[in-house]
Amino acid sequence: MSEVYVMVTICSRKNMPRFVDCYKDYNVEAANISLGRGTASSDVLDLLGLEDDEKGIHMSLVTENTWKNVKKGLQSKLRIDVPGTGIAFIVSLSSIGGKRELGFLIDGQEYKKGDESTLKDTKHELIVAIANYGYNTQVMRAAEEGGATGGTVLHGKGVGMKRAEQFLGVSLVSEKEVILIVAKSSQKNAIMRAIMDKAGVDSKAGTIVFSLPVTSTAGLRILEDLQDEEVDDENNN
């Protein structure tokens, strides 16, 4: 994937509408918003000028040129450099499940298609599946058929979902569930394909799936050793 990133924004919940409005000016309309809570002490919150620690997490796809313009806009329009306003950052997108889905997520942004990107020596990837609310089980069953061993589910709300029918030919609800799956890079394509085939945008789950490169992991080795042993046993039988 060439020059496409996942942009993550974290700010106070009450300020999130300002960021959403700002992003619309740069054709960043399709996104997912989840709620979280900061861990700063009350003294730190007072120092930063924050009234509470309830956070909004905004996640969307942007091209390289869009990010450059968005970054300038955040500094000039929202004064993001002022403590307490929020933070935004980007992560390279490794792959996305489907051309239609990509078109929907970056509609209106300047984009030049390139090869799928990978980081050198990347052995794992984070698969992000955004599905209609109530379908995380269907998504995980599909992922497990593709080789996944488990995942984590977050609740969120979709932004710009009314445009989905125009681009995808289907309607998507606003209430969303975000399923996070860490998998071996060698298993990524099979897992994403299984999700697309059994819980994709043409199903009731309406899932959009993409992946991000993972630099390093801890806590997966024992599980993966067991998987490798099972594969070896199957090959020997």
UniProtKB/TrEMBL annotation:
Gene3D superfamilies associated with the record: 3.30.70.120
Protein's GO biological process: regulation of nitrogen utilization
Domain of life: Bacteria
One Pfam family this sequence matches: P-II
GO molecular function: enzyme regulator activity
The protein's name: P-II family nitrogen regulator
Organism: Lachnospira eligens
